[in-house]
Amino acid sequence: xxxxxxxxxxxxxxxxxxxxxxxxxxxxxxxxxxxxxxxxxxxxxxxxxxxxxxxxxxxxxxxxxxxxxxxxxxxxxxxxxxxxxxxxxxxxxxxxxxxxxxxxxxxxxxxxxxxxxxxxxxxxxxxxxxxxxxxxxxxxx
Length: 141
Hints:
This protein is mainly α. The chain has helices spanning 13-51, 72-75. It is built from two helices and no strands.
């Protein structure tokens, strides 16, 4: 607002000087008022702190980090995923050799060794027990 003020349009030199002095005084008073308000707030915060209350929180300005990505999908970098082997955690209960009928194989087939394959299965069995307990009323001497 004061930037739009053209003091050169004032014809009277003394009036122009008075207005410049008044504007400088207003600017100084505005700065002093701002300083005093900050000091008053600090003192109020200190009084509240001494009373055991919380003072005015210090709020930092938000910082926005520039990103060159336009969406979440573009920012996401997928990680290579592979299923982890758990064979070292498994206890092998029994080992069984699978036999192949020689009649189904060609005559020049030869054994090159075994390929280990681990298969886990769950076995659920019933275990029904009939207990016979001694009935004291039926006991004969």
